[in-house]
Specification:
mainly alpha; MetI-like fold; two-stranded antiparallel ribbon; 12 helices; about 75% helix; transmembrane; membrane
Length: about 290
């Protein structure tokens, strides 16, 4: 009996610090965001005025907020699809094909994940420069560039950010999937070869189903992190411009906070939180499958 009590106390002591810190730095701030979204507060005044759902009613009518949400959703969907497609294909090639220097390619693909968002944004901003950027310089070899392409102009700014975000993320997930694919028994592929299955068929019928649990977990994590990464890339590369064309929900919330609209910015935060939570639930439901054992 005493041993059980001592064990219980030990477990409580181990878990308590992390639980307390999580409550103080995650739960309480989140609850405070919900509370502040129901108030109005001046930029230089601690006085708060209760306004109920007024901030949320304003959100529905705010065309700039709606546009920023559309940009965020577009970035999340496109970046996720492209990143996971490239990561899975590259991982399959480097795992199954006999390519010299596999470790070299792993390192090369992983390097962008080591770099900070600010560094990557600086690299791509230099590449996208209209006058002497690398991209326009290469295109200039084949066509007249009197009117240079504005890669960070209103029409192309979102695709330009997507390219930078994909470049940053592919290597990390490729390495993760390579680890998962390496654990798939070679005998399954040998049996498939004897049955005449092509590499493409093996990829979709053997590889993907057997690493699906890992794909599902990383998919949820990646989509939520992309919401945050979109804010970082937009802030570092364009600051939401030009003319708010690249504004995403988090950067719009940040700008409203800087304008002194604390209650309204917290309402935007609540909307993003609810969207992220609902999106995670939908993804988990849509990707739910019986785990396969091998």
């Amino acid at each position: 009996m005493k041993k059980n009590k001592g064990r219980s106390r030990f477990l409580v002591l181990c878990v308590a610090p992390a639980t307390i810190l999580f409550f103080l730095f995650m739960i309480l701030p989140t609850l405070n965001v919900f509370r502040m979204s129901l108030y109005e507060r001046g930029a230089y005044s601690p006085q708060e005025t209760f306004v109920g759902l007024k901030n949320f009613q304003q959100l529905i009518r705010d065309t700039q907020f709606i546009r920023s949400m559309q940009n965020m959703i577009l970035l999340v969907v496109v970046v996720t699809l492209i990143t996971f497609a490239f990561a899975l294909v590259f991982a399959a090639i480097l795992t199954r094909e006999k390519i010299k220097g596999q470790n070299f390619f792993r390192v090369v693909f992983y390097i962008p994940n080591i770099l900070s968002v600010v560094v990557i944004s600086g690299i791509f901003s230099a590449i996208y420069k209209p006058e002497n950027g690398m991209l326009n310089s290469i295109i200039g070899l084949f066509r007249d560039m009197t009117n240079p392409i504005l890669w960070k102009g209103e029409k192309l700014v979102i695709p330009s950010i997507i390219i930078a975000m994909v470049w940053q993320a592919v290597g990390y997930y490729m390495v993760m999937y390579m680890a998962s694919m390496s654990s798939v028994p070679a005998s399954l592929y040998e049996s498939a070869n004897l049955d005449g299955a092509s590499r493409l068929t093996q990829f979709f019928r053997i590889t993907i189903p057997l690493i699906w649990t890992n794909i599902r977990t990383t998919l949820t994590f990646f989509i939520i992190s992309t919401i945050n990464m979109a804010f970082l890339f937009v802030t570092a590369m364009t600051s939401g411009g030009p003319n708010h064309a690249s504004e995403v929900a988090l950067s719009y919330m940040y700008s409203q906070k800087n304008a002194g609209l604390y209650g309204y910015s917290m309402a935007i935060g609540v909307a993003i939180f609810v969207f992220s939570f609902a999106l995670s639930a939908c993804i988990n439901k849509a990707t739910s499958r019986e785990p396969l054992e091998f």
